[in-house]
TrEMBL record:
Polar residues bias spans: 1166-1176
A cellular-component GO term for this protein: WASH complex
Entry-linked Pfam families: WASH-4_N, WASH-7_C, WASH-7_mid
Biological processes annotated in GO: endosomal transport; endosome organization
Top-level taxon: Eukaryota
Domain (WASH complex subunit 7 central): residue spans on this chain: 606-949
InterPro entries: WASH-4_N, WASH-7_C, WASH-7_central, WASH7
Annotated segments matching region Disordered: 1151-1182
Species of the source: Cebus imitator
Name of the protein described by the UniProt record: WASH complex subunit 4
Domain named WASH complex subunit 7 C-terminal: residues: 967-1144
Domain WASH complex subunit 4 N-terminal: 32-604
Comp. bias (Basic and acidic residues): 1151-1164
Length: 1182
């Protein structure tokens, strides 16, 4: 029957009965799988967000935050509903004005104040470029415009509040009253007006203390004058300048002249068009004065006492209200004025915000000078003396205060833990809530307020009065900062339980208030004598009662406060009832905004202006390592200013300010804690390992002992976007130090290994093994060291082309250092093959500099003219001289160069040029040796592979066996290593070719045409080299071996290698091998010396008959000298011929290009053939 009720659309389902069930089961399985995965994912997130990462978490990074502050969704008109329409209007107007005041205060606190305070703190002064100040000020103008609008709005609200109050309290007996105001005191309105005046007063103080703002503003105005003279240069239309200048003058007059507060109180409060009269309203004047005195009476009782909560802020408002009252009504209560000044003895100064401190006496004397004249100078002077005395006393009592607060806060935290851990008993529920309320407010919040006040007042007073703080005071204040953050963290850590308790406490307090109001309401109803005033009272009580029946929002509490201002008249409440009701309402205010108030009091943003204390604090932490965990709280305090800094608008990006701050704090931390800790740990490990040497007295009873291991038990500290892990930092430092020192002196590897083990045992540091070769006899000079000092290396070492060895030129010791391929291979094995490319890159950079000097030499007029002259001479006489360059011409060139001048060491320009070429050749020899060393290292590593032609693929074998994923990764890595080694051992990187390709384009440019003369300078250069070489070798046999040498093939490379690399077109890139070969220089030299040798031999035969021994001896020496010169030139020729092989000297640049093109065409053809063969093979496969 059930089937018949189905709609016709589902008729077809009747056939397939089981499909729905199967489908549902599949979906359930999928859903179950999803839930399992989601659960595991949530668990991973929970573990990642666990508070074990750091003792103090960054509140701003909470993924989920619990907001206790209730949000009012009803409008004021909906909340204020009674049958008394007139009262409704009065309460609505006043409530709206109070809400507007709160909004303005909030806007100032979280927007305007921050921008103004942060303006001076750009990057460091050193990084400020000329013009930066003006640019920053330009960016800041838009904010000043917003601030101007804000101030104007504040003026309007103040005006409106005064008018609304004056309209209610009218002195004209004829005019009808809105409501009966006898006994009605809207104290809340005056408190809110005081808050708004405090905002304006704070603005004045910030700008007055802001030297940088004024300096930047002056510079900006000067810039504007420059723009005025030449607008087109700056791309600005002239007609727009004048309005802009007027706008700036308006901003300056309104904001920067320190007249914001004064302009507000000097407004024309009396309506000119017959509206509200204010200054002549005596009833309003009396009410105004009465309200100020009432607020002051409440404030004075608690100001400076342990139970003080927000009385200081209210006192600032009272001073503002008093000045406003004097400005409007021009009457002054001398007794009250003196009472206001007497408060300065209790409270010498008040911190308005951050680093801005306010002196009430200065304010009152400045704003009401007429009243100040009535007081004697001694009483005014006594206030200033008292301020100095207060600072001295505070400096002495700070240490005791810290100890007391330490005990208080610790016991409060224990109470919090015990109360919040217990389950609430239903039979004692109300009592339990009262206890919790007292612990939250009367203990926790009050401690936070007291500590915050001490820190801010003391620090700012020292800064304002420009007096130095003692280290003891700094340490004590930093301890108080830690306590402040500990209180905040306690509330945060137990926020879930606190949130639950707060809602219950709020309801309990509302219940108490409702009971009190209910009793008063019954009393009013029971009295049958109804009057308008009594009806107003009843309506006000009903309104308060209705409003309290709901969440404890700011708006509702405000309405209750205003309603009770009307409802408490006519002795509705007895004295013993009214005071408890006021206490309950005060508690309700505090508990409803508990978290926000705790955050405000525990906010340590002011530390940004007192960063100078941080180094002293870190020194103290280092000296007293026992309680190192307090670092977490200090970094949490330093982090408080970050949200404010993100609002900075005077820079291109707020990140510039954040980076600057981050860098500064990290530098201080490194300098005053981390680096000292690293050095101390290293020193301790060294002395412990070398105790047998008895280097120092290490008796802890004599020299004392610090347990630095406590630093390593700390959780990582969060700061900005990083975690500061002290353990990891010190471990890295020790690892790096031990590794570097082991590479310098490998024979000390056992000592550093022992120190590594000791660090693990004593401090629990997990050290990394160095994995350096522990035994080697042929390490030689390190590649890295040569690379860093290549300019020194090429000048101090000589290269042997045939043996591939570098030998030190001179040494103060009795031995010379040598560097060969094995040394380079060992060094590459230590650092890895990656060092080879880096080395070649360094050499390239070095060659660039040397080639520049080379080009300058060739471009010199004296050199160039001689070379061109020699080229012309050779072209003229080559046919007559059998195409050989004359030896005499080379000698003449050498002598001619010497005439140009010599250095104090006796070297000519050609000698210096030879040295330059030698250094370039040495650099090229070094590159060659790097390549050979790399091949040597690879071949040594690959020698354990049985057959290079048939290497087993380990990855495939592991897959076949079905081994674990880690084994597969290891096999893949092994295959990669074997492949690299095989390739490296079979073929090295052609570094010479790379350097040729890099330099070739530059040296072929027409602008380097002066280098084409190089081939003609080679003959005199070789002659110079041979003479120098023989001179060096002769010095080997002398006692004074300065300047002696026996191998200098670096020069030979200096001829050949610069052909391609140094002066790219020399003999190679510009096809100058053929030009040089056309000189037939070495044949000319050979013929010259053979001719002279034959002449000497012939002369010897003639003189042998004369028996003149001296003459024969001279001839023998001459023949020997000629033989040595000939031999040297022959060796030079052979070495040059072998060196030319590196650069394929048999081919010109054109031939090489042609060969390259042919190869590319062959490759394309072979690829085409392959694709054709594949295409033709397809049908066969099918």
């Amino acid at each position: 029957m059930a089937v018949e009720t189905l709609s016709p659309d589902w008729e077809f389902d009747r056939v397939d009965d089981g499909s729905q069930k199967i489908h549902a089961e599949v979906q359930l399985k999928n859903y179950g799988k999803f839930l399992e995965e989601y659960t595991s994912q949530l668990r991973r997130i929970e573990e990642a967000l666990d508070d074990s990462i750091g003792d103090v978490w960054d509140f701003n990074l909470d993924p989920i935050a619990l907001k206790l502050l209730p949000y009012e969704q009803s409008s004021l008109l909906e909340l204020i509903k009674t049958e008394n329409k007139v009262l409704n209007k009065v309460i609505t107007v006043y409530a709206a004005l109070c809400c507007e005041t709160k909004k303005l205060k909030y806007e100032f606190k979280f927007k305007n104040e921050i921008h103004l305070l942060l303006l001076p703190f750009t990057a460091t002064d050193a990084s400020m470029v000329e013009g930066d100040c003006q640019i920053q000020m330009g960016r800041f103008i838009s904010f000043l415009q917003e601030l101007s609008c804000f101030v104007t709005r504040c003026y309007e609200v103040v005006m409106n509040v005064v008018h609304q109050l004056a309209a209610l309290y009218i002195s004209n007996k004829i005019a009808p009253k809105i409501i009966e105001t006898t006994g009605v005191h809207f104290q809340t309105m005056y408190e809110h007006l005081g808050e708004l005046l405090t905002v304006l007063l704070t603005l004045d103080e910030i700008i007055d203390n802001h030297i940088t703002l004024k300096d930047h503003w002056t510079m900006y105005k000067r810039l504007l004058k420059s723009v005025h003279h030449n607008p087109s240069k700056f791309g600005i239309q002239e007609e727009k300048l004048k309005p802009f200048e007027k706008f700036l003058l308006k901003l300056e007059g309104q904001l920067l002249d320190g007249m914001i507060f004064q302009a507000c109180i000097e407004q024309q409060f009396d309506s000119l068009n017959g509206g509200v009269s204010v200054s002549k309203n005596s009833t309003f004047a009396e009410e105004f004065a009465h309200s100020i005195r009432s607020i002051f009476a409440n404030v004075e009782a608690k100001l400076g006492e342990p139970s003080e909560i927000d009385q200081r802020d209210k006192y600032v408002g009272i001073c503002g209200l008093f000045v406003l009252h004097f400005q409007i009504f021009r009457t002054i209560d001398k007794k009250f004025y003196k009472s206001l000044l007497d408060i300065c003895k209790k409270v010498p100064a008040i911190t308005l915000t951050a680093n801005i401190i306010w002196f009430p006496d200065n304010f009152l004397i400045q704003k009401i000078p007429a009243a100040a004249k009535l007081l004697d100078r001694k009483s005014l002077q006594a206030i200033k003396i008292h301020r100095d005395t207060f600072l001295q006393q505070k400096a002495q009592s700070l240490t005791k205060d810290v100890q007391s607060y330490y005990v208080f806060v610790s016991s409060w935290m224990m109470k919090m833990e015990s109360i919040l851990s217990k389950e609430q008993r239903m039979d004692k529920f109300a009592e339990d809530l009262t206890n919790r309320c007292n612990v939250f407010i009367q203990v926790g919040f009050l401690y936070a307020y007291s500590i915050s006040t001490i820190i801010k007042t003391t620090m700012n007073l020292y800064m304002s009065m420009q007096k130095p703080m003692t280290k003891t005071s700094v340490k004590a204040l930093c301890r108080l900062v830690e306590l402040l953050k500990a209180i905040e963290h306690m509330f945060y850590r137990r926020s879930m339980v606190v949130a639950d308790s707060v809602s219950h406490i709020t309801q309990h307090l509302q219940h108490q208030a409702l009971n009190s109001i209910s009793v008063a309401k019954k009393r009013v109803i029971s009295d049958k004598k109804y009057s308008e005033q009594r009806l107003d009272v009843l309506s006000a009580l009903v309104l308060a009662e209705n409003t309290l029946n709901g969440p404890s929002t700011k708006q509702r509490r405000l309405i209750v406060s205003l309603a009770l201002s009307v409802g408490t008249q006519m002795k509705t409440f007895k004295d013993e009832e009214l005071f408890p009701l006021q206490v309950v309402m005060k508690k309700l205010d505090l508990i409803s905004e508990l978290r926000e108030r705790v955050q405000t009091q525990c906010d340590c943003c002011f530390l940004y202006w007192h960063r100078a204390v941080f180094p002293i604090y870190l020194d103290d932490v280092y000296e007293n390592a026992v309680d190192a965990a307090r670092l977490h709280y200090m970094f949490s305090a330093l982090r408080d200013c970050v949200p404010a800094m993100m609002h900075a608008r005077h820079l291109a990006s707020y990140e510039i300010l954040l980076d600057c701050y981050d860098k500064e704090i990290m530098e201080i931390l490194n300098e005053h804690l981390l680096d000292k800790l690293c050095k101390e740990i290293e020193k301790d490990l060294r002395l412990s390992v070398h105790t047998h040497l008895k280097l120092d007295d290490r008796n802890p009873f004599k020299v004392g002992m610090k347990d630095l291991a406590l630093f390593f038990s700390l959780n990582p500290i969060r700061f900005f976007n990083r975690f500061i892990n002290i353990r990891a930092y010190v471990t890295h430092y020790l690892d790096k130090t031990f590794y570097n020192l082991t590479t310098v002196a490998l024979h000390d590897w056992a000592t550093y290994s022992e120190m590594r083990n000791l660090a693990t045992q004593r401090y629990g540091l997990v050290m990394t093994e160095a994995h350096l070769p522990s035994q080697t006899l042929e390490q030689g000079l390190d590649v890295l060291e040569i690379m860093r000092n290549i300019h020194i290396f090429v000048s101090r070492y000589l290269y042997n082309l045939n043996n591939q060895i570098f030998i030190e030129r001179t040494s103060n010791n009795k031995h010379l250092n040598t560097i060969n391929i094995r040394h380079i291979a060992n060094s590459i094995r230590t650092h890895g093959t990656g060092i080879m490319n880096t080395t070649v890159n360094f050499t390239y950079q070095f060659l660039k500099k040397k080639f520049y000097i080379f080009s300058q030499f060739m471009y010199d007029e004296h050199i160039k003219s001689r070379l061109i002259k020699d080229i012309r001479f050779f072209r003229e006489i080559k046919d007559q001289n059998d195409h050989k360059y004359p030896f005499d011409r080379a000698e003449k060139f050498n002598r001619g160069i010497r005439k140009l001048g010599i250095t104090p060491e006796g070297q000519s320009y050609l000698d210096q040029f030879r040295q330059l070429i030698s250094q370039i050749g040495n650099a090229m020899g070094y590159v060659r040796m790097i390549r050979s060393g790399g091949l040597h290292c690879s071949s040594n590593a690959i020698r354990f592979v049985p057959d290079l032609e048939d290497i087993v693929n380990f990855e495939e074998l592991v897959k076949e066996e079905g081994l674990a994923e880690e084994t597969l990764k290891a096999a893949r890595h092994l295959d990669s290593v074997l492949s690299d080694h095989t390739r490296n051992s079979a073929e090295g990187t052609e570094y010479f070719k790379m350097l040729v390709d890099v330099f070739a384009p530059e040296f072929r440019r027409p602008k380097n045409i002066h280098l084409r003369n190089f081939y003609i300078i080679v003959p005199p250069l070789t002659l110079n080299f041979v003479e120098h070489s023989i001179s060096c070798k002769e010095k080997l046999n002398k006692k004074n071996k300065i300047g002696a040498a026996f191998t200098d093939d670096g020069f030979l490379n200096g001829i050949v290698f610069p052909l391609i690399l140094c002066v790219a077109y020399i003999l190679k890139l510009l096809d100058q091998y053929r030009e040089f070969d056309s000189l037939h220089w070495f044949q000319s030299v050979r013929e010259k010396y053979l001719k002279e040798i034959r002449a000497v031999a012939k002369q010897q035969n003639v003189q042998s008959t004369s028996q003149d021994e001296k003459l024969l001896q001279t001839m023998n020496l001459t023949q020997k000298r000629l033989d040595v010169y000939l031999q040297e030139f022959e060796l030079l020729y052979f070495s040059l011929s072998s060196a030319r092989i590196f650069f394929r000297a048999d081919k010109t640049a054109a031939e090489e290009n042609q060969e390259k093109k042919e190869k590319e065409e062959e490759t394309k053809t072979s690829n085409g053939d392959l694709s054709d063969s594949t295409g033709s093979a397809d049908p066969v496969v099918k």
